[in-house]
Every structure is written in structure tokens, then in C-alpha cells.
Amino acid sequence: MTATEPVLEQEGRTIYRRPALLSNPTSYCPGCGHGIVHRVLAEVLEELDLGAKTILVGSVGCSVFAYDFLALDSVESPHGRATAVATGVKRVRPDKVVLTYQGDGDLAAIGTAEIVHAAARGERFTVIFVNNGIYGMTGGQMAPTTLAGQKTTSSPRGRDVQTQGYPLPVTEMLSLLPGVQYVARVSVADPGHVGKTKQAIKRAFEVQLEGKGFSIVEVLSTCPVGWGLTPSESMERLRDVVMDAYPVGTFVDRDRGIAPALPQPGAAHRSITEGF
Amino acid sequence: MAMHAPLVGAPLRRPASGSHVFRPVLVAVERCKGCGLCVDVCAPGVLALDTAHVNAMGHHPVLLLDPDGCTSCAKCARMCPDAALTIFARPRGA
Amino acid sequence: MTILDRPAAARPAVAAAPPASARGAHHVPDRVLMKGNEAIAEAAVAAGCDAYFGYPITPQAELLEWMARRMPEEGRVFVQAESELAAINMALGASAAGARVLVSSSSPGISLMAEAMSYMAGSRLPVVLVNVMRGGPGLGSIGAAQGDYLQATKGHGHGDYRVPVLAPSSIAEAIDLVRDAFILAERYRTPVMLLADGILGQAMEPVAPTFKTLEKGRPDWILDGAAGRAPRVLKSLHLRPEDLEEHNLALQAVYAQIEKTEQRWAGEELDGSEVVLVAYGTAARVARTAVERLRDGGIRAGLFRPITLWPFPAQALRDAAKGARAVMTVEMSAGQMVEDVRLAIEGAVPVSHHGRMGGMVPSPDGVVDAVRLVLAESKEAGR
After folding, report:
1. Among A169, A167, A149, which Cα is nearest to A159's?
2. Mean pLDDT of A175-193
3. Interface of A with C in 25-64 (CB under 8 A)
4. Cβ-count burial of A240 within 10 angstroms (0-12 exposed, 13-18 middle, 19+ buried)?
5. C with A: 3 or more CB pairs under 8 Å?
6. Which among A117, A163, A245, B76 could disulfide-bond with C82, CB atoms 3.0 to 4.6 Å apart, if both were Cys?
7. What is the band of C383 on the pLDDT scale with cuts at 50, 70, 90?
8. Start-end ranges of CATH 3.40.50.920 in chain C?
């Protein structure tokens, strides 16, 4: 016996319903942040009416099945190569909306060269980078974004920065590149932050539609199974520990004059999108 | 402190026959994975996981315990990783 | 008429042969001297290549440079990627979106492309990949070699797949085969490799300056946004073993069809030959000269030149070698095609290999001496 109740839809205005672009129920673990990001992405694409002209470039990780959950034309990429694949797609179909959806292993480990160069070239597509600091799909190994001291199956005594290096701040790194137009880090820790995630993703697609440069949203997320925590505990860790290590905010939004404060090169060498 | 979704074994509240209760939250029970995030974020605390039932995936789906207490803020729906919740505004007088 | 339409065992149109004008034709066709790399590139442009992705590596950098100038001139896409790995993946994306795509590299760069080749084979994406072979293994040398035969023909990425491999022996032939490669890639929805070498890439030969075009279809599997239709997914992942087996059976059926209908080769002086030399690419030109010298010396030698290395023209080779006393491959490697030759001959005739490695090119006299030795040995053994 189920717990559904009859719907009295005709009585109440609908405040929230599932976006149609979310095609099938997901196979993600209970409480996994991917589900939230997929949902928010689908909401944004529907609100901007972009579903029919969007091409999704998938990646390898838990979200390899994104093409089963989002009703978009999709192409699979080898692990780490999504930003190169997306370059090919967008260059030959500049009138379409192109996005990659990548986890931290895919983007910040094996795909680091590709993301840096796509951003440096100012490729006009959008990267949704879901960072949960772990390799979920393969069983919970350490990732480049795993925090110091964090225990994973390949750092069983906790990440030792002496031998295993320091976590990689991808958003900070990319925000230095002239070709990037919009760089933001957000999280899904609670409804307020989820709302900001949605705003950032929406802004990223607006930037793509303006055709001025590269846009990326890093979404700090959870992996309850990999972290060995309940979904509730995971959101707490996300809020208290992860967001402390990776500050959220808008790092670059050139149209709004937001960029890192650094010694600047000469005018001839600055971003071509400044004052565009 | 970790907040766990309160698990409730209380029987489903059924309206008296002939009347109906406005329910601002519709749960797609077969999509719900019982993660409890909606329960965590519900300010009036009107949601709970229904331990009396499991869905086909083996999860305890969420249950709207107190429809009258729900303010249709939709925080639950905006948190749900499985888009299992549909939210309606309360009509006047309901 | 393209090479794919020519009947079996046709004589190759080799630019090394004297042009028709020398034999008293009415008019002299215009010819231009073109470097192989550039001719291959221009042939792709003429054949409607929409996008080129590459990375500098010797001895094919001129191909990249030609495309850097010509593709923007034609309003098409050119990207010099950050690595060969990125270049081939850009090609994967462009192909998925329906573009006609060319990628080029040389041996070490081709190794980096192995992963994507497997993915493209699995996802059934057409791409033409040019390998201008150099000496290996590893960083090797920048001289011409044929050490990537096994890599090209045995599928060089992981998994059960094959790609058609076309091997031109002259720049004029390379121009034709570029267009044919696009035809094959799109007809069968597969990556296709054009296997050249550093000499072919760097040499300059006279070629007719007008290159043939190639129409473009509008396939029903490409990604261009799901407007008014169901979304399409291009992938190679099929998690359920039953599903993956079914997918592999479908791929094998495509390969079986290619094997049945797309084998190409050329033969010279094969009738009644007692020694059959088997060679492709630049080595075939050396072998041709060796055949002439052997014949001048009274040995009835012939040349069997595979043009498709996969599918390997095994039956045609078996037929050509019937009655011969010896078969010898001439390769710029330790002997790689010789394995396929042995498989094809199935022990009917002794098979040997003569070659040089490291960027060295066999000389015709070296081949002649090797043939004489083999024949002497076989005479001693009473064959």
C-alpha cells in the first residue's frame, strides 16, 4: 500500500512541479547532490526554453547516465575529455547551447588539461562541475578535490598532503584566465544555496547565449555513500567543512565587472571580453 | 548535531469519508528514496519518512503528516534530489 | 571514378609513372608540385571537410599549417588543440554533431588517440584520421617508417573493433584516398585511417590541381538539438552484458560487410610470377623498382600492393601467390604486415620479410639481394 493521496490540483495553484526535461527517475544514491543539480539544470533549461537546442556532453563518473535522466541530445565522452568533445560540438554548431556535466575526478584529475585549455580558448559553452571531493562511481577513492585529512578508500589514513598533495581549487585557477566570462562556485547544502545554484546556472547559460566566452559553475555537492554519512549528515559536512575549504561566490562575471584582484597585464593583453 | 529524519510509525491520517483534505504536497512515492533531506529543511516540520511502508525500491517514502501545518513554501521540493514532490498553494478557505 | 569503384587488381594510378603527355597525348594537363601533407589537406578541404583538429608533430606539421590557413578561408573550423588527445576528442564531438572531420598526426600522437578511436568505434562516429608514420617505438625518429601497421589494423584502442585502413603509395593516390576515406567513414559510420609515412608526407610530386568534391548527406543520428523529435544519445556504454553483446554483434556485422565489399589492392607483373613481393606505401615504390631489376635479371618477380590494409585482401593475395616459389614483404619495420601475409597464404608458399627500421628506407638493390637469397635457400631446400 502506498502513501499517495488524491491530488486536488484544480483547487490549488501549482507552486512547484518536476520539470519535463527530467525524463526518468535517477539511479543516484539517496540524498546524492547530482539529483539536485540535474533538477535545477532542467528547471533552468525549461525556463529559458533551451531544451530543444541544447546538446549535453556527458562525462564519466556517477553522472555518466545523465543522458538517461535529461531529455537532451547527448554524446558520451571518454573520461576527462568532455571539454574537448564540447569544443568540437560547439565549434561546428555555434547556434546550439552546449554544456558539459562533469564530476571532480573527470574534470580536476584526468581532464585538467582539457578544462584549462577550453577555458583559455574562451570556448562558448558551459561547464557544470559537480564537486563532491571523491570518486563516487568507482567506490569512494580520493580525488584531487578531496580535503586534507579526509579518509577515502585510497587514503585510508586520511589524505596526507606530504605524499598525496593538496586539494585543487579549480574555480580559483580558472578565474585567472582571460577567456573565461563567468566563473562561480555554489553549493546544494540547503534550499537557499540550491536557489543560488540555480541562479548561477541560469547566469552561465545567459553568458553562453551572449557568446562572449567560457562559463563554469562549480557546485559543491555530497556523496553520502562515499563519505560514509547519512544524507542529512552529508549536507551538514558540506555546509560546515566543505564550504569552509572551498568558498562560494561569483569569481568572474565580466559583464558585471567582477574579476579576481591581481596585478594586471597591459591593456593590450587583457581579456578581450572586458568592456565588450 | 546530525539531524536524522524523524521516523514515524503512526498510521496514515485518513479524512472522514465524504470530506476531503487539501494536501499541498503530492509525493511521487515510487521516485522517493527516503533520503530525508526534505524532512530536514521543512520549517514547520510537517514531513516525516513513513516507516510503515516501503516503495518498490525498498525506501520509506516521505509523508505529509500535517497538511494544515504546511505553508507551501516548497523548500522540500527545491531540496529533493529526485523531484518527487509537487507543491500546491493553499486555495482560499482550504 | 574513385578507387572504391575500380575493379579488383587494377593498375594503380601512380604519379611516379610518366605523365600521359610524355606518351604523345594531345595536350599537357596542368600539374602542380605539391607536398604530400599539403595535398592530403587540400583533398580534405575539397571533399567538404567541415572541421580539422590537430597538433604539431613532425613529419606532418605542414598538414596542420595548411589547414590553419585554408579552413578559415573557407569559413570552416580549425583548432590547434593542446594535445593529440584533445584533438581527437574534439573530433569526436564535431562528428557527433554531424560534421565531416579530419584529424592528422604521426605515430606518437596516434598512440594518444587510441582511446578516442575505441570510443568512436563504439559510438559509431565517422572521422578520418591521417597517420604520417615516423620511426618508433617511443619518440623514435622523424624519418619515414611503417611501424604502425599493427596499431592501425588491429584496432589500436581497446575492445572488439576494426577501422578501415587505406594506404596510398603516391601523393596522387593519397588525394583520391582522402575522399574515399570520408566516403567509407560515412557509409559505415566508423573512424577510417589513412596510413601514410614521412616520405609521402614530405615529398613533392606533380599532381593535377583540381581536387574532387564530395556531397554531404544529413544523417538521422546526429546531434543538433532535439527540436520536434526525441532526443538522441551517442554512447558506447552498454552496462548489461546482454546489451553490449548485441551491440558488438551489430558492429561485427558492419565489419563483415566492409570485409566483403571494400577490399582494394593493385597488382603488377603478377601473372606467372615466381616471387611475389608484398608492400604498401613508400615501400611499394621501392619494391616496384626491385621488381623491374629482378625481371631484368631473369627472375619473374611481381608486386602485390594492398591498398586497404584492413580489410586485408587475403583471398586476392592467395590467388596472386599461387604457383609462386616465394612471397616476401618489403616493409619499413621489423615486419608487421608479414603476419597478415602469412595468415593469408596459410602455408602454401614460404613467406619472408625484408625491411629496414628506425626511419631507414630499404633500397631496391637490398630487396633484390634479399630475394636472390631467399630463392637460393629455397633451391637448396629443394623447393
Report:
1. A149
2. 96
3. 51-55, 57-58, 64
4. exposed
5. yes
6. A117
7. low
8. 266-380
User: Could you give the CA distance from residue C176 to residue C167 in angstroms, rounded to a whole number?
Assistant: 11
For chain C, list the contacting chains (3+ Cβ pairs, <8 Å). Answer: A
What integer is the mean pLDDT of A209-223? 97
Cβ atoms C101, C79 nearer than 8 A: no
pLDDT digits (tens, 9 = 90+) for C17-71: 334 444 444 554 689 999 999 999 999 999 999 999 999 999 999 999 999 999 9
Chain A: residue whose CA lies nearest to B79: A191
Of A78, A89, A121, the CB nearest to C97: A89
User: What residues of B are in contact with residue A11 (Cβ under 8 Å)?
Assistant: 22, 88, 91, 94
For residue B14, the 8-state DSSP code is: -
Partner residues linked to C196 by β-bridges: C132
Strand ranges for B1-94 from DSSP E: 7-8, 25-27, 47-50, 62-64, 85-88
* Cβ neighbours of A16 in B, within 8 Å: 74, 77-78, 85-87
Say how far residue A256 (Cα) sits from the centre of its chain.
21
Contact status, residue C103 vs residue C128, Cβ threshold 8 Å: yes
- Answer whether A93 touches C (CB < 8 Å): yes
List the CATH number of the domain containing A106. 3.40.50.970
Distances (CA, A) of C355 to A176, C40, C152, C328: 53, 26, 19, 10
C104-146 residue pLDDT tens: 999 999 999 999 999 999 999 999 999 999 999 999 999 999 9
Interface test with A, best of C52, C83, C90 (most A CBs within 10 A): C90
Lowest mean pLDDT among A1-10, B33-42, C35-44: A1-10
Q: What's the pLDDT score for residue A266?
A: 83
B21-30, C179-188, C241-250, C275-284: the lowest-pLDDT one: B21-30
Contact B81 A12 (CB under 8 A): no
Chain C residues bordering chain A (beta-carbon distance below 8 Å): 50-51, 53, 77, 79, 81-83, 85-87, 89-99, 101, 115-116, 119, 123, 223-228, 231-237
For residue B64, give the 3-state DSSP assignment: strand
Which residue spans of chain C are classified as CATH 3.40.50.970?
3-16+26-261
| Contact: chain B with chain A (3+ CB pairs below 8 Å) | yes
Please indicate whether, in this complex, the C-beta atoms of C119 and A73 are within 8 angstroms of each other: no
Tell me what pLDDT residue B91 has: 83
Identify all chain B residues contacting A187, using CB atoms and an 8 Å cutoff: none
pLDDT, tens digit (0-9, with 9 covering 90-100), for A94-133: 999 999 999 999 999 999 999 999 999 999 999 999 999 9
How far from chain centre, in Å, is Cα C337?
13
How many independent structural domains does chain A possess? 1
Nearest CA-CA partner of A135 in A123, A149, A145, A150: A145
* pLDDT score at C292: 97
Q: Which residues of A touch B74 (CB under 8 A)?
A: 15-16
Residue A276 lies in a domain: no
Q: Is B49 an 8 Å CB contact of chain A?
A: no
- Residue A138 inside a domain? The answer is yes
As a CATH number, domain C3-16+26-261 is 3.40.50.970
- Count CB pairs under 8 A between chains A and C: 136
Return the SS3 of C195: strand
Instruction: Give C101's contacts in chain A (Cβ within 8 Å).
Output: 88
Q: Which chains touch B (3 or more CB pairs under 8 A)?
A: A
In this prediction, residue C27 carries a pLDDT of 54
Banded pLDDT at C155 (limits 50, 70, 90)? confident
Model pTM above 0.80: yes
A75, C92: Cβ pair inside 8 Å? yes
Q: The CATH number of C266-380 is which of 3.90.1150.10, 3.30.420.40, 3.10.450.350, 3.40.50.920?
A: 3.40.50.920
Q: Which domains does chain B have, with CATH numbers?
A: 23-94 (3.30.70.20)
